[in-house]
Write a structure and sequence with these properties.
Elements: E1 2-7, E2 10-13, E3 18-26, E4 33-39, E5 46-52, E6 57-59, E7 67-72, E8 77-82, E9 91-99, E10 105-108, E11 112-117
Parallel strand pairs: 2-11
Antiparallel strand pairs: 1-3, 3-8, 4-5, 4-9, 5-6, 7-8, 9-10, 9-11
Length: 118
């Protein structure tokens, strides 16, 4: 089992930046990919960015060129650098990890609030 703890959320003005962190612990050797999702009030949770164990990254169209996902394998931590933040980026951001060994599994962090003021 993998435990995920997010940090780095907060209140920022439009145009500002934040970096979210997600620290993984537990059976981290079984992680195939890690991702960031977000859920705004009244909306469904949506995928923001994903990074595979090989370092391949993919982004939602809405954040391409604005957000960057990266990982530090030595620290078992994944980051989400968010630049040029907009009010519409306001949401609870969740870290997710998934793997297939010994059986398919997924884990979620508790979420961290990001609020962008106009």
């Amino acid at each position: 089992q993998v435990q995920l703890v997010e940090s780095g959320g907060g209140l920022v003005q439009a145009g500002g930046s934040l970096r979210l962190s997600c620290a993984a612990s537990g059976s981290i050797f079984g992680i195939n990919f890690m991702a960031w999702y977000r859920q705004a009030p009244g909306k469904q949770r949506e995928l923001v960015a994903v990074i595979t164990s090989d370092g391949i990254t993919k982004y939602a169209d809405s954040v391409k060129g604005q957000f960057t996902i990266s990982r530090d394998n030595g620290r078992n931590t994944v980051y989400l650098q968010m630049n040029s933040l907009k009010p519409e980026d306001t949401a609870v951001y969740y870290c997710n990890a998934a793997g297939t060994w010994p059986t398919p599994w997924t884990s979620w962090g508790q979420g961290t609030q990001v609020t962008v003021s106009s």
